[in-house]
Amino acid sequence: MMIHRILDCIKSSVARQAREVILPLYSVLVRPHWESCIQLWSPQHRKDMVLLKQVQRRATKTIRGLEHLPWEERLREVGLFILEKGRLQGDLVAAFQYLKGAYKKAGEGLFTRAYSDRTRGSDFKPKKGRCRLGIRKKFFTVRVARHWNRLPKEVVAAPSLVVFQVGWGFE
């Protein structure tokens, strides 16, 4: 796997394996590889998730002083979050951009609107739809609909992406 080679290069070429050195290198050289197109790809199989988690574990273990801590504690120490939360953040940001009109041509008709006469929640609720196939449950539109519909009205109605991220707690 190419990402492991990148981690090997970082580990062998960096003399001082401190947090201030390793984290920027990880953010610039490693994360873009496994984050690219993750909203569309979205690892569905356990073996794919294990491979991605191995990369994150190995990168945080490279930082001097954190080698002996458990993985989740290392993540908290360096200010990273687990892959699932990162994927959810990416999903919701992409959905926000789509629903606010950023992808008019490319994503036309991506979501179907579930109309409701309830007074609670936002005006637009993406329809989840029914899935006969297990693989369909992992599609972007189905994954996002459940989480989007749980967001408070103030967050959904945010005027900009920055306000949306702050309102949901991404910052």
Share of residues in helices: 55-70%
Q: Which regions are unreliable across 5 or more consecutive residues at pLDDT < 50?
A: none
Cα radius of gyration in angstroms:
19 Å
**Extended strand count:** 0
Distance N to C terminus: 31 Å
| Biggest beta-sheet profile | none
Beta-strand share of residues: under 5%
Structural class: mainly alpha
The H/E string reads: HHHHHHHHH
Shape by Cα distribution: elongated
Feature tags:
171 residues; mainly alpha; 2 domains; 9 helices; elongated
What does this structure look like?
By secondary structure, the protein is an all-alpha fold. The protein folds into 2 domains: 2-80, no CATH class; 86-168, no CATH class. Helices cover 56% and strands 0% of the residues. The protein has helices at residues 2-13, 19-35, 38-41, 46-61, 71-78, 83-99, 140-148, 153-156, 161-168. Helix 1 packs antiparallel against helix 2 (19-35).
